[in-house]
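Re: beginner question about structure tokens

> Can someone show what the tokenized structure looks like for a real chain? I only ever see the sequence side.

Sure, here's an example I had lying around. Input first:
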Amino acid sequence: MKPAEPIYLDHAATTPTDPQVVEAMLPYFSQVYGNPSSSHRFGRRAEDAVERARDSVAQLLNCARDEIIFTSCGTESDNLALRGVALRAIAEGKRAHIFTAHTEHHAVSRTAEQLARLNLARLTWLTPEPDGTIAPHTLQAALQRLQPDEIGLVSVMYANNEIGTVQPIAALSDVARAHGALFHTDAVQAAGQLSLDVRALGVDMLALSAHKFYGPKGVGLLYVRRGVALYSAQTGGGQEHHLRAGTHNVPLIVGMARALELAYADLPARVAHYTHLRDRLIDGVLSSVPGAQLTGAEKARRLPNHASFTFAGIEANALLMYLDLNGIAASSGSACNTGNPQPSDVLLAIGLAPEQALGSLRLTVGKQNTAAEIDYALQMLQVAVERLRKVRQAHGIA
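And the corresponding structure tokens:
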């Protein structure tokens, strides 16, 4: 029977803002409303809130407070990292050389492509393994191409948004460091599920977006290790160490810090809950839906909340529509591309044929999901795949 309330299984796209986060933000909309750059008491109170948030985030990331740059989202953070290095290289009479993969979020891959097209950077694509992993030996071989007059920048995401694969970031950053290259990671999907200790990860830059871990939309951050020089891609005032001009969004910055605190206060319990539901999904789909194939890494090396599949003889948009009509919210991959009839760059990069890539489904669980919801989703998915295949057969489509 269709559930009374829709079942949300698209937490990789966004998460609901935690009520405790909303409560923390509310005073900064109408009570503590000063501009943090103003010198009067209204401004000082707002500035104090921003700096307390910075201290909280820095503690959770195990870094210094002046290594945190507040931005509007993960995409802006990724852009600042890549463009910041490219502009710095030009200013120093050099050229950036970016090493990344087609499995990256478009915030990285398309930014790298544009910089290369404009001859602002040299670009080397890294070839992923079939599960989406970038192997250290692959990066090692690619970095042999780094020239003395280039500033190397490796950008590999911590955890993939479409297929859930978790990368060996510490090992990859070791390789980059050995070749004198900087290392940036898009950790947007990892936040609230994996450790964000930047010292242990060995990264030079790390991007986050609050709405992926029960914080508000419209705010993110970029960790930039001390000693890493960037040029601002957004000029104006001197906010954020002259790296991100614009008036601080105080309520959202406060909300992001609170969301991150909550996420890591009960991390073991959250991860255990996610993992239980994820494994129920993966095992249920693979055992009950003929022609289902898990995409990405095996359970031990994928995000705790992430299950992704392709289904032979199924078109993803039709599958998503059927699930939605029956009370299940899911996606075919990146929320930025849902509804796009073109096959996913990520799935093509790991070796899937275009017709396979067009039959992809991503199910990502969250705090409020239950085992009963997962069981209903499995039942509906089995019915949906069977019916959609019969429709194709009736129309003579292989």
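Each token stands for a local structural state, so reading them left to right follows the chain. DSSP finds 15 helices and twelve strands in the chain.
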